[in-house]
Amino acid sequence: MSKFIEEITLNTWPAEQSVLLDGWVLRSASGYTKRANSVNPLYEAAEPSNNIMEKVKLAEQYYEGAGLKPVFKITPYIQPADLDEILLERGYHQVEPSSVRVLDLEGLPVPDSRYVVQVQDELSEAWLDIFAEFTELSAANRNTLRRMLSASHLKQGYAYVLKDGKPMACGLGIIQHGYLGLYDIVTSPAHRRQGIAEQLLLGMFQWGREQGAKTFFLQVVLANYGASALYDKLGFQEIYQYWYRVKG
User: Fold this and answer.
1) 191 touches 168 (CB < 8 A)
2) Beta pairing partners, 220
3) Residue whose C-alpha is closest to residue 83's, from 93, 94, 91, 72
């Protein structure tokens, strides 16, 4: 399941461009998120070569040509298996160790009736307004996010929690092959640590079940202790960890 989930994470969080380099997937999206702007060395080379450094240099040239810093996503499935050590020796440093977790969607509770969780099937400027306000998203990154999400043909759910008519939290769910991926879960600064994110997730679980999803997955930075505690409470189970290697 784990490598299959890794593939689905690439599909559900789209990049603006994906370029293949002998088994590696080079993704870019104007620098918005490492997830969409990194090398994903998932597959073995078609022609085995001892000159892995030449391949690394070609990947670096691609990102430098795009005006981006070279970044590699390191998972348990990297090819070659010693790529992490190779990048370390080349001066790449490790950032954002993260956990990939899954949850069975069956038998989960529904949101508290005091909160209204709305899920829209299409990206709207209203949802972007809420997300941009809560995250202080720049105009350039907002435009990139709009392009990325609008180009996807997968089932999407743009969710937000309302109380007394005011948005308090928002998030995004994207479905492929019965797996619902969770992205961009954020709570208004004025409403954090009040259980709002949990209500948002419960509403998204309900929506996912209605769409036929069976399993929920997410990726969380290990240093985000608050989010990790919530996901533990809801029953998410870690299936693997990953991190990024960034040049310089």
Assistant:
1) yes
2) 99
3) 72
Alpha carbons within 13 angstroms on the beta-carbon side of residue 108 total: 27
Answering whether pTM is above 0.70, one says yes
What CA dihedral angle connects 238, 240, 241 and 244, to 10 degrees?
-140
**What single DSSP character describes residue 80?**
S
DSSP track, 41-64: --S--SS--S-HHHHHHHHHHHHH
The strand pairing partners of 170, in sequence order, are: 160, 186
Neighbours of 248 (CB within 10 A): 7
Q: What is the pLDDT of residues 139-196, one digit of tens each?
A: 999 999 999 999 999 999 999 998 888 899 999 999 999 999 999 999 999 888 889 9
DSSP character at residue 190: G
